[in-house]
Amino acid sequence: MNNKEEAVFSISVIIPTYNPNRDRLNKTLVALKAQTLALTQWELIIVDNNSTPPVKADLSWHPDAIILREPMQGLTYARLRGFNAAKNSLLVMVDDDNLLDENYLQNATTIFGNQAGLGAIGGKSLPEFEITPPSWLKEFYGSLALRDMGHETHIQSWQNNYPQYGPIGAGMAIRKEALASYMKKAQSQQNMITDRTGTSLASGGDNDIVLELLRSGWLVGYFPQLVLHHIIPKERMEVAYLAKLLNNTNHSWIKLLHSHGINPWKKIPGWTVPLRKVKGWFVHNAFAGKVNYIKWRGYCGTTDALARLEP
């Protein structure tokens, strides 16, 4: 690992997107336009992951902005397209519904400048609801990529498990040289976590990056001065969506941990899955209300994954 610091960091902001909501994407771009970091110190890369129709956006306000197209479906492939195209030493991943606070990019450059061993960092992802949310939604903030872990900084190294304060994909800032191991893994296509593809709500691509960085000797951290607001529309507060989300993400979480050799659960016989799900229906009181039902669907995703584990 090369810890040599640069006098001035430049950033590549990467926005992977698939059939984006035009209003939300525009709000994301407006927030980027308001960044206090000079436009000359960062480039903007939008990766259109095979949208229909192709993504269009007014980028005339930025002197170094481009829309690229990645035909291979999947969030991971879109991110890789952005990583390979990026010209700068720091990368910031921004979802097409993320509103970065105006000092986000400036704060990221400062943090990396002060911490030579940091490979990836993140901060607070706060909700911006399009309608008033139901009171029970807080149970699933983590699944919706929302988090506020307080006002203290936390830095972690590899500890043979997933780091409590590891950054999430929304707003994750990465030192490009720290991606070497992950990019090598991507080229080999071995144990790749492809993340969301089409209508699938699977995830884990960002967690895969974090684990690869940690195993390579880099540090990851949570920095509360990095703040973004995540737009949560009405449809993401519906029971059917959240049930599918928890089911898909729990399934991919097991797959991710297993691929890194840190899965604490054992493989289960496939024939037991229906029985476990029926038992789980009663254990989780899935009939008792929305929260219970959604959690049961998450349990079902975990059960399916454990039955399909490779040796």
Overview of this structure, please?
The protein is an alpha/beta fold and about 300 residues long. It folds into 2 domains: about 10-230, Spore Coat Polysaccharide Biosynthesis Protein SpsA, Chain A; about 240-305, no CATH class. The chain contains 8 helices and 9 strands. It has helices spanning about 20-35, 75-85, 105-115, 180-190, 205-215, 240-260, 275-285, 290-305, and strands spanning about 10-15, 40-50, 65-70, 90-95, 100, 120-130, 155, 175, 220-230. Helix 1 links the parallel strand 1 and strand 2 (about 40-50). Helix 6 (about 240-260) packs parallel to helix 8 (about 290-305) and helix 7 runs antiparallel to helix 8 (about 290-305). The chain is globular. Mean pLDDT is about 90; it is low at about 1-5.
